[in-house]
Amino acid sequence: MRFKPSSVLFTIYFWYVSASPNDVERTDLQILEDARLDTFNLIKKYGYRCEIHRVYTEDRYILEMHRVPHGKNQTPGPRPVVFLQHGLLSSSAEWVLMTPGKGLAYILADKGYDVWMGNARGNTYSRRHSVLKPESKAFWQFSWHEIGYYDLPAMIDYVTKETGVEKLQYVGFSQGTTVFWVMASTRPEYNDKIIAMQALAPIAY
Q: What is the pTM of this model?
């Protein structure tokens, strides 16, 4: 199956324009039940395969990635890879909270993509370090610059090695766009690993 670089962009566009408050079908109780689940178990609840991967950065932070390797009713196999990076104070959960048919990770998986969701250092899934403790001040001495310089390259290297692809699609939301441009400008060799970058609510200076 051949995928054009623009296919991710069109999928995102139709996902955005079709979003409506009237689409919400969950009861209040179901919403509360979902809110108690982490990303992995939320994805599993809706019948999708999910994997947890650990990634180690050059400066020894330990990041957790979540992967939906294929759609709900699809069989495993090689697929084009898309990488989703969350916004400020968020996590991979933002791509799946809207449930199947509405959450972008589900939609892309059902469209035939191998979906990888990153988690930046310090968030609920990536609060580990080989030496530093999260309770220490030193653990938190970073900004979006370090996320772009260390975290993104480490995760992209991991994903390309794990899947065997040379290039992937990138979707960033808010801070997820900022850190991409940090990587692209400070480590330009990574531009060769990106097919296309989709910026949702982009932030740059």
A: 0.89
